[in-house]
Design goal:
With about 675 residues, the chain is mostly helical. Helices cover about 70% and strands about 5% of the residues. It is built from 26 helices and five strands. A five-stranded parallel beta sheet has the order 2-1-3-4-5, sandwiched between helices.
């Protein structure tokens, strides 16, 4: 046993996890993509019907944002109607106050713009004077001026005899006599459309909040009456994600805008409150909003002061606050709870801006969140979750196999090192690498993998094992340090942290409890030979087992499947070998395994020989393994990495080779022989 009980990784439940992985890879249905006609029809309906869909979309998102407030007021004893009206009135009053303050600040800024003109002209003259050879700006201005003159120049024409002398133009003054009603119409006309849209949004929000439960039931009856569990989960997930996103984004934006406002006021930037409010609003726009919110204060810093220091200080203020907010505040508050990938956020911003303009840009993230939630719970829209979601679309073992199949062991190594940050080496091989090789064996069995591809996968897997030598060496060194009491405590603490992280990832509590009862044995003083059974992929799996045994302190040697052929098996040096472990990815190799066991035990009767059927998954029955071992005349049979290591390092005596059963001659043949 290892000095410290750190090998609390995989027990009998490892086979069940492996079975689920393979079942997922074999039975995962193909994602159904929509037809081009349906996509074009949907986009066209959203585009040409934006006058109808846009207010409804805004009202829906506001309903998600205000619904928690209404629920809180109802729990406090406020009647539903009063709670809805108070919540909507408070929300739109805050929006109106925000708009009023911004409009006031903009008006004040417009009055002071002529004052800043002198500083702008001074900086332009300074740039012209500091340019080489007469100034860069003057050169560009001269080129543009000459090009304009060339375009405006007309070819000279000969005067005709009949041409009349030119007359000076007569000034004409146009006096407009507008009626008061027309003046009022010109002032109010442009405001009718936005005011009508705002009123429509308010009314829709009120009725959605009033009839929220009824709308929920109607949606369930229309879409998911046959699967109430899935539809209910989708509605709860959408409401939680969108509501949490809007609330947390508002909190983050306020935290972002407050230091921006104070900093601009300290630096002396006029209308600091305006720029703080704009920074708060524009940060709802992903990626682009903070940049746009910083451009206007930077331009004003250029115009206010005659020097350049104020511009640099303003830029530094925005950069520092953005870095702190993006890397500390946002992950702390909500992280990636939107469920969208960064690329999906950018693509969604472009699409919704093209579809619905600036309002679509602001609504792009919450609308896309709703679509991703729909795709996560409704099979017909699964492609939306695949395209825009932030969850991995390939299982770790499938991703590993894809990289091995592509002949890219470097990326496979990067993927393995990411997993090894949370798991130990034997766990990675048992849960990811071996299932990846099983996928390759399945493809070989189906005839879709040729010999060249099989060798490429095997070579990539062997390169992966070689690349992980450093990780294996590090774990082996940790095994040595665990012999000290202090090392035991540190390692146990690390193991506890890793177990906690695995439980957070969604592992069942019973499974973790089973894992805590198992430790991998110490392999010091034991010599083991690991070999593949029937092909290159089996050799790669044997190399993985050999590396795990080396971490346990075992003296390991490796052999190829070709070394176990009848013509070459007697050339193996088994003098100092205590055990031989032969691995098969193909379960239909039991007869071949029995022959190998007999050959090895004939060479060295006291040799322990174990068989590992990597493809036999979901079988944690020790009695079945013992029965199969008796049939094969093997010392042990394993179905996973942990059982293989435990059997190889066992101190039990070798099983005696059973005598071969000779076939009895038929009675008729005996009679013929007697007659002769």
């Amino acid at each position: 046993m290892v000095a410290a009980n750190r090998r609390n990784g995989v027990g009998g439940a490892s086979e069940s996890r492996l079975a689920s992985l393979l079942a997922a890879s074999r039975g995962h249905p193909r994602t159904v993509l929509p037809t081009v006609a349906s996509v074009v029809t949907s986009v066209a309906a959203l585009y040409f019907g934006r006058e109808v869909f846009l207010p409804i979309a805004v009202a829906l998102l506001l309903t998600f944002a205000i619904a928690p407030v209404v629920s809180w007021l109802k729990r406090a004893g406020v009647p539903r109607i009063a709670a809805v009206i108070a919540s909507v009135a408070g929300a739109f009053a805050a929006l109106s106050l925000f708009t009023f303050v911004v409009a006031t600040q903009v008006s004040d800024l417009a009055q002071n713009i002529p004052v800043y003109q002198i500083n702008i002209l001074t900086k332009v003259r300074a740039l012209k004077e500091n340019g080489l050879g007469g100034g860069i700006i003057s050169r560009l201005s001269g080129v543009i001026e000459r090009v304009g003159q060339e375009i405006d120049r007309q070819e000279p024409q000969l005067p005709s005899a009949a041409e009349a002398p030119k007359r000076d133009p007569i000034p004409v003054e146009v006096v407009s006599h507008e009626k008061p009603l027309e003046v009022l119409q010109n002032l109010i006309g442009p405001l009718i459309s936005p005011l009508a849209s705002a009123g429509l949004v308010i009314i829709v929000v009120i009725f959605m909040l009033m009839e929220r439960e009824d709308l929920r039931d109607r949606f369930i009856r229309l879409v998911g009456y046959g699967d109430l569990h899935r539809t209910t989960q989708a509605l709860q997930d959408a409401g939680k994600r969108v509501g949490q996103y809007l609330l947390m984004q508002l909190v983050v934006n306020i935290i972002y805008a407050v230091p921006i406002t104070i900093g601009l006021w300290v630096l002396g930037i006029p209308n600091a409150l305006l720029w703080g409010l704009l920074a708060l609003a524009l940060r709802f726009v992903p990626y682009i909003g903070p940049i746009v919110g910083a451009l206007l204060p930077l331009f004003l810093a250029l115009a206010v002061a005659p020097g350049w220091s104020l511009l640099l200080w303003t830029a530094a203020l925005f950069i520092v606050v953005e870095l702190v907010t993006g890397n500390v505040i946002e992950p702390w508050l909500y992280g990636s709870h939107t469920g969208l990938s960064p690329l999906a956020i950018i693509v969604a911003a472009i699409f919704w801006t093209w579809l619905w303009g600036p309002i679509g840009l602001v609504l792009s993230t919450p609308l896309t969140v709703c679509l991703v939630v729909l795709g996560r719970h409704v099979p017909q829209f699964e492609f939306l979750d695949v395209l825009f979601g932030n969850e991995p679309v390939l299982e770790p073992h499938a991703r590993m196999y894809q990289r091995l199949l592509a002949g890219d062991p470097d990326e496979a190594t990067d993927h393995a090192e990411e997993i090894l940050e949370e798991k130990y080496l034997f766990q990675f091989y048992d849960q990811v690498a071996i299932p990846a090789l099983l996928l390759g064996e399945q493809d070989r069995g189906r005839g879709v993998m040729d010999d060249e591809q099989r060798r490429q996968v095997a070579d990539s897997a062997m390169t992966l094992v070689a690349n992980l030598d450093d990780s294996a060496q590090q774990e082996a060194e940790e095994e040595e340090t665990e012999q000290a009491p202090a090392g035991e405590k540190a390692t146990d603490r690390k193991a506890s942290e890793k177990k906690a992280s695995e439980k957070k990832a969604g592992e069942p509590a019973e499974e973790s409890a089973d894992e805590e009862d198992l430790d991998l044995p110490d392999g010091s003083g034991i010599t083991v030979l690991c070999s593949g059974g029937r092909g290159e992929l089996d050799d790669a799996a044997a190399a993985m087992l050999a590396q795990v045994l080396e971490v346990q302190g075992t003296s390991v040697s490796k052999a190829s499947f070709a070394d176990l052929e009848p013509s070459a098996i007697r050339r193996l040096d088994l003098g100092a070998t205590d055990a031989v472990v032969i691995g098969f990815l193909n379960r239909q190799s039991s007869q071949h395994a029995r022959f190998m066991v007999r050959r090895l035990k004939r060479i060295k009767p006291k040799l322990r020989v174990g068989i590992v059927f990597w493809s036999e998954v979901g079988n944690g029955d020790g009695e079945a393994a013992a029965e199969l071992a008796g049939t094969l005349n093997a010392d042990f049979v394993a179905f996973g990495m942990v059982d293989a290591v435990t059997g190889a390092l066992s101190k039990r005596a070798a099983v005696t080779l059973k005598p071969a059963h000779r076939r009895r001659q038929p009675a008729r043949r005996k009679q013929l022989q007697a007659a002769q």
